[in-house]
Amino acid sequence: MSIGEMLAATVPMARTLNLEFVETAPERAVVALPDQGDFHNHVGGPHAGAMFTLGESASGAIVLAAFGDQLTRAVPLAVSAQISYKKLAMGPVTATAVLGRPAADVVAELDRGERPEFPVTIELRRADGAVTGEMTVVWTLRPNN
């Protein structure tokens, strides 16, 4: 099962929004939100909450891709999130997430018995390529002990 399939199967909100996990790799994750009238706001674009969920889902996909091999000893958890809405989003929106720290550095902290935190940055783009939002989610790997 791919990371996208796993997230779609285990995260009800991802299924509700019909998120499409386009790319899930340790270097980058891309998730798409189709244009769906049920999730529009008052101006006909995707609701801010749907865009937040899209970005957070992309950040979760890259965290699982980068640290999936650590799940036997640590649980990934979102610590905080910040989003800025830059332009009106209309139609389908795509979120692209990248790790803000090298994965090896995060794992080294975990190896030392620490609880590492690391940012994931996300760009939200509409179909014409314009950036409609920017987001940062800070994650941690909480040791299982």
Automatic annotation (TrEMBL):
Pfam families: DUF4442. InterPro entries: DUF4442, HotDog_dom_sf. This is DUF4442 domain-containing protein. It comes from Streptomyces roseirectus. The lineage of its organism: Bacteria, Bacillati, Actinomycetota, Actinomycetes, Kitasatosporales.
